[in-house]
Amino acid sequence: MRKYLVVFEKTKTGYSAYVPDLPGCIATGRTKNETEKNIYEAMQLHLEGLLEEKIKLPKMQAVSEVFVFSS
Questions:
Q1: What region, left, alpha or beta, does residue 14 occupy, with left being phi > 0 and alpha being psi -120 to 50 degrees?
Q2: Mean pLDDT of the chain
């Protein structure tokens, strides 16, 4: 089992998502749920493509942290 960080961003038309450790692996959707589904499918295809090309799957290196600031 592999884990990868997924970054979601709100856009004017919905959401976008990308995986820092899988360059080029991106997805969009009108809702966050739709975007989650789309990025999961994109990740599956991306990883399957790497395996077909006999490219070693990258390990997760990206990390995330949330900082809260009070005004």
A1: left
A2: 96
Domains of the chain, first to last = 1-71 (3.30.160.250)
Cβ neighbour number for residue 55 with a 10 Å cutoff: 10
Q: Are 42 and 24 in contact (CB under 8 A)?
A: no
Q: Which amino acid is it at 30? A: R
- Here the tokens at position 6 are 């997924």
Tokens representing 52 are 């077909």
Give the span between the Cα atoms of 47 and 16, in whole angstroms.
19
Type and span of the H or E element at 44: helix 32-52
Task: Determine phi and psi for 48, rounding to 5 degrees.
Answer: -60, -40
pLDDT tens track for 10-59: 999 999 999 999 999 999 999 999 999 999 999 999 999 999 999 999 99
